[in-house]
Amino acid sequence: AISFYQREGFIIQCEGLDEATGEKEYTMLWKRK
Question: Organism's domain of life (predicted)?
């Protein structure tokens, strides 16, 4: 799923961990092409 967002122009600002689920969590920023 990450590659889809990156292809659409999103960049990952920071990467963290969701404490409730233990899953990776990304803060993403979108720039209009």
Answer: Bacteria
